[in-house]
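Box S2. Input/output pair 1.
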Amino acid sequence: MSDATWLIDQARQSGLRITRQRVLILRALCELNGHASAEQVYERVAAHRRDVDLSTVYRTLERLRDLRILSQTDLGRGFVEFEVVASQPHHHLVCHACGQVQDLPHGYLAALASAIRRDLDFEPTLDHLAIFGLCSSCRAKAWTEEIGKE
């Protein structure tokens, strides 16, 4: 079963009506293979069909996000990105200075989710999170520059 077929089946099982436009959007997501903006999905779909507009792409991506088939994350690139929810959640560390994106295993956030459930009686959705800060290279560069000013 191809990734697109699996994704279409997931959407159908979640109660989403599968239209020709939605099939194209789901296939485009699979072709983009990872993080994709609504505009990137739209460009891919528009190459095949001109009758799908950007608002249809946004609505479909948001609906898939609401069904937890997709996750939505801001990786600091000026737009939100969508990605198919994997069997194991994953997260990212994003450097403010150089823009490097590093994967963060879910185990680091599993303890946080547990504490939130226990202490605040709240069920967090931690499928795909970005944490911003400074990578080790940029921290070292900033430290070196600070020492040079003294």
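Box S3. Input/output pair 2.
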Amino acid sequence: MEQEKEIINRVSSSSIVTFDLEEYYQPGERVLIDIKDQLYEGLILKEKDFREFIKSHDWSFYQNKFVAITCTTDAVIPTWAYMLVAIALGPFSKVIEFGSLENLEEKLFQKALSAVNWDQFRNAKVVVKGCSKVNVPASAYVHAVAELQPIVSSLMFGEACSTVPLYKKRS
């Protein structure tokens, strides 16, 4: 009778540290405000009408939401129009960003990653986790690599059991 060998999980016993960008995702609803909806004939922003919109719109709809402000038509929008929207949103929304929802997501990750104590990864073998349940923008991966590469001993992408090598510090 052959003796069964104990199965050893080498992944869990390795010195590899996983950096999971999903942990830096800020949960909450993302909303886009498109100023195009306030343009006269889809082309012109009339100040009087726009100020009336700002005054009468129910801004409480944006309570605790992440908001991006943009204009998706090819119209010249004065900067003050975006500023008025931001002022109206101020008491309600969590974050206000100019641009698309993608710009908003990038900004949220940038802010979260700026608070990371990167020194905790000094001389570590780090794998930047590739799969997540949320949409992590490519810019967040680039930001993480830019912070990690100068301090880690090696850098990989993927899962601890299947990685793509990215960088290894020379001895």
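Caption for Box S3: The chain has a mean pLDDT of 92. Residues 30-93 form one domain.
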